[in-house]
Specification:
CATH architecture of the largest domain in chain B: 3-Layer(aba) Sandwich
GO molecular function, one term (chain B): ATP binding
Order of helices and strands of chain A: HHHHHHHHEEHHHHHHH
Number of helices of chain A: 15
Structural class of chain B: alpha/beta
Strand order of the largest sheet of chain A: 1-2
Family (chain B): Belongs to the ABC transporter superfamily.
Shape of chain A: globular
Largest interface: A-B, 29 and 33 residues
Number of strands of chain A: 2
Domain ABC transporter (chain B): 4-244, 258-499
Structural class of chain A: mainly alpha
Number of strands of chain B: 22
Number of domains of chain A: 1
Distance between the termini of chain B: 36 Å
Shape of chain B: globular
CATH topology of chain A: ABC transporter involved in vitamin B12 uptake, BtuC
Strand content of chain A: under 5%
CATH class of chain A: Mainly Alpha
Protein name (chain B): Sugar ABC transporter ATP-binding protein
CATH superfamily of the largest domain in chain B: P-loop containing nucleotide triphosphate hydrolases
Distance between the termini of chain A: 23 Å
Number of helices of chain B: 20
Keywords (chain B): ATP-binding, Nucleotide-binding, Repeat, Sugar transport, Transport
Helix content of chain B: 25-40%
Oligomer: heterodimer
Chain lengths: 327, 499
Amino acid sequence: MSNTATQTSTGGLGRLIRRYPFLPALIILVLLLALNGVFEPRSLSFRSMTGLVSTYLALMMLAVAQTYVVFSGDIDLSAGSIVSLVNVSVIALMQKWGGDGFAVIAACLVGALIGLACGLVNGIVVAGLRLQAIVATFATSIFFTGLALTVLPVAGTPAPEAYWTTYGGRFFGIPFVLYAVAAVAILLAILMRMRLTTQMLAVGDDQQAAFQTGLPVTAIRIKGYVFCGLFAALAALCITGDTASGDPLVGGKMTLYSVAAVVLGGSALAGGFGTVTGSLIGALIIGLINALVFFVGTPSEWQNFVQGLAILLALMAGILVSRGARA
Amino acid sequence: MSELIVRGARKAYGATVALSRGDLHLKPGEVHVLIGSNGSGKSTLCKIVAGSVKPDAGEVLLDGKPVTIDGPRAARALGIGIFYQELSLAARRTVAENILLPAMPVKGGIFVDRTELEERTARIIAEFQDVAGEGFAADVTVDRLRADQRQLVEIMKALASEAPILIFDEPTSALDRAQVDRFFEILRRLKQEGRAMVFISHRMDEIFSIGDRVTVIRDGATVASSAIAETNADEVIRQMVGEREALSAESKPPVPAAAGEPMLSVANLSGVGFRDVSFTVGKGEILGFGGLHGQGQSSVLRAIFGASAHHTGAIEVGGKACAARTPAEAIRNGIAYVSGDRGRDGTLTGRPILENVTPIHFLRNRLHLARPSVLTALVEGPLKALKTKFQDIGQPVNSLSGGNQQKVVIARWLIDRPSVLLLDDPTKGIDLAAKSDLFQLIRSLAAEGMGIVLYSSEDAELLANADRILVFNSGVVTRELQGEERTRYNLYHAAYEAA
């Protein structure tokens, strides 16, 4: 009875968006895919799509990482620096341990641990010591970049062949990155059902209310940063596979892209509302915009300009769609 | 079966004492009413018991054993559940998630058990389903609910804790009759089960229909506690008023000869939180707004000032129609507004005193260039008249005490005199000396011919300074107190009447 009342009070689109907040982003994604197809029909082939995913899987991971801190109303400006630090650490370790399969796996595990540790540091600094998230993680980003530069002062050390041939290779005729995407999808589906996700969103919604409710607010926020560190490390492993080399500054410019992906995906930057699925779509939107800018033949000196404009348009379109649905 | 005793609980925020001596004896199987005027410390006492406020002193005994409650989680573990007056809901989460947020059912250690969540919340919601109204369902997010429905969710959240001790801090303020009746049925059942409940309400009829005992708090201290059957509404109000009744009669201002020509007249003003408000303020008059906190007084003042919208009604300033839609318009029409919430409405934090005194001057005279020497000369007079204490006109305003900050904010209205001054609880967080300076100034401004409206949440202040008092209850003016009627007793009586 009461359900029908809510249904009639708003349109069908509004109801769908409330249930799937990433819907506007999905519409933009499909639109961009179509545009890409118009300007470069081959870009819709299985092969190019796989290439797109393998290039932007790192950004997708970083967008997921950012989402978990944004859920509880925080932000991590060091996410990209964690990517850099893990990237150079993994490269250095694999080189040191001799580049066979075992060394690769061991280095990846250590890389994940480094990501977790960075996340823990951020969590303690922001939630434990109650510093402003935006400034504190900006400071830790400089700190992590500094560490990365001591591990590998200049870009260029190559990854062992076993690593990048796996990342770029195929198994049973299916590209490795698609297995990775499937694994991440399953992982995210599991994480979405966690009590912690609901608690993070409740903290982001109203921190005081969450405290009065009896939630361990500080611990929940720290866990958000730890998740962020872990997924940033996964992003680093992807980028290592894609570029096949170490670069102490590789992640720096990815940080704000990850924030943009979260917002494009329909999450509220103030916290309390959003989905990881949306952030994945947001990262793909950024990837497709970059591809489109290339396919339409933008002169190189205009590429940044057009790319920035396109992201702005995508943001506006997303807001217009959700606003139209609410009215 | 839990018995809770609080003895000598004390809590101060800086110089402001929220609770000086809170005592409470809560027995199993009773509904214990807490009553007291605005800011008397009821909510602070409740929050101390619920663990969200840490007391400076005092002890809490649970079943005879002293306990320390060092957080909301600890309180829950001890079996204490609470309904927060300001609600503790996550707006973007669903009704079901909110109800069980404190203790989400889990399976496998980390995953939300959706089936269990749905079953348990369905049972709780079922008790209110027929009175909850349209659009209320387990899977609706809280931000899509009406105020009364949100209050029901907070009630359900408290009930879901199944705690032996339940505290309800004004749970009925937005509920309609049917919802209150249903809530009371449940309270009576819980009483049968032997639970102990604290109930706060400002509606006398509710208190006498559900309460077993009543404890009265006045100025942060517990003053009386008696069985409901052995007392009555008049007695309770007398206890809330205290002996200061006699004092306040003496400090009452003399009745002015006759209010002069109308400076501000408001007719049938309605908006969000108030309806059909009409009054006139004469030249040289101080009109008081009284009643419980948040009954529409601030909303009316902000609507006149153009800081929030009103739907219908007419406003005249000095005989000229003035329907200001922005504060800038209102200011140019000669209206001044001083709010007690200095951080939000008053000071430009971090900026020098000089800049804090001059913005109205710039606005009214449409100035665009600042000439420090001219401005400094302009500013000196008003600051001196208010006895503002500061070292240097260039020091940031937030380096001053609360009282001096408020003087700086008031000084900005004195360079170009307005014809109407609206005071919205202006003495919040100000020391006594500054208060008396402020009221002296306000009286002298009135004597110079300004029309003044004063809303104060402190009844003593209102009684001592207002020539006439309009008592607000649920957004409407329920009574006007004039001349000899201006007593604490009458003020409370009008404020606590069932609306």
